[in-house]
Amino acid sequence: MLLYSMSGFGIGCADFIVAVYLLKYYTDHVALSASLAGVALMIGKLLDGVSDPIMGFISDRTRTRWGRRRPWFMVGAAPFALSFIAMFSAEPGWSQLQLFLWLLSWNVLFWSAQTVINVPHAALAGEMVEQHDERNAIMGWREGMQQLGLLVGASAPLLVLGSLQDAAVDGALARGLSEQAAQAVGFAARGEAHGVMAWQFASLVFVGVLLAFLGTREPSRPRTPPRESIFGDFADTFRSPPFRLFIVVFLFEQIASGLSATLVLYTIRDWWQFAGRHEMFLIMVYLLAAVASIPIWVRVGRRMEKVQIFAIGSFISAATLLGATLVPLFGLGLAYAGLIGSGFGVGARAVMAMSTMPDIIDDDEERTHTRKDGAYFGVWNLTRKLARAVTIGGAGLGLSLWGYQEGALEQPESAIRGIMWMFSII
């Protein structure tokens, strides 16, 4: 289970960095307008979305000596790492059109490569184990390692970027530059440091996927064959009443999670006005709470229904997001408490959502007499990407409409109000 979940660790790192740092990198360091950056990321997600059910269809029918799921891990690993590096390697001197096209093209490849890895990887879990508690356990491992990847993806970039920025500021001061000029030099160095950070994490992602490939084996027991038509597979998923309900709830859950993740740095820096070490510690506390909660929720899952645990996690997260509006009044302590509570809610939703999928697929197999894990997880990944497209595009357009100033050290009151509405209320 540990080696199987290593792919989730690497992808979790990359996903968090893209969700949290990419938009701010383009708006603050290479000066692409927030609206164009949001549109590029949204279009990239939408164009890539069609690959998810196709990838599920293909992996259901793949036949190799290494199985039908595992070979795709390695097919997607190199493009995934390469596109991740490229997205953080834009040049500040490029025109708005050049920056837009660069971000759009590499973003499409990034999410397409992630699909090639993630859809077969998720489908494999339901085939490796069949019992209720075992599925909770393996999905707990998968989501736990992914949350750990999110933790590393949250904290390590801040350390890398911060250390290089501080070194540049110290060097500028030593050369006799004024404090203001030295801070400007440090800010520019922080932008350039994203390329260094991208190389480090791309290597980590590749190693994680490689370990998942080497450390797993696909079961040899016979499986009910899938349909011969991709349209039949796709239609069957939406003929399943449990899946229709699941996918609607999952869509709204992903929109809420994605919007808060995309805006968390804007919230901490621009709205709450916390900087320095608190910026890193707040994100780390949130993710540590999510990781720590997962074994607790797995144990609770032995005594409660999955839907009940999912509802509890959703209520906790919603309450803490609303509580975020009070942080400017009550200070840093409430920020830490709220993010700890939100992390516990995320842990419950992540484990129970993933653990429910194999149960839905079993129900479909009894109804249709065909087995199509890949198709179901393809639609699942498509829904996740559509939600991300809405949140990233919406966040970029929202920031622009509320008057966010790209590269400014202080934001107007209208931009702060917009961040508050999008992060907490919407």
Task: Give a verbal description of the structure.
The chain has 16 helices and no strands. With 426 residues, it is mainly alpha-helical. The longest helix is centred in the middle third of the chain and has 43 residues, at 132-174. Helix 9 (241-262) packs parallel to helix 15 (373-401). It has helices spanning 2-28, 34-49, 51-61, 71-87, 96-128, 132-174, 179-215, 230-239, 241-262, 264-271, 277-300, 306-323, 327-330, 332-368, 373-401, 413-425.
Descriptors:
mainly alpha, 426 residues, 16 helices
Q: Give the strand tally.
A: 0
Report the mean per-residue pLDDT as an integer: 84
Helical segment count: 16
Instruction: Provide the succession of SSEs.
Output: HHHHHHHHHHHHHHHH
- Low-pLDDT ranges: none
Percent helix among the residues?
over 70%
* Proportion of residues in extended strands: under 5%
Q: Kindly report how far apart the N and C termini lie.
A: 37 Å
Radius of gyration: 22 Å
Structural class: mainly alpha
Taking the sheet with the most strands, its summary is: none
Shape: globular
Q: For this entry, what is the oligomeric state of its chains?
A: single chain
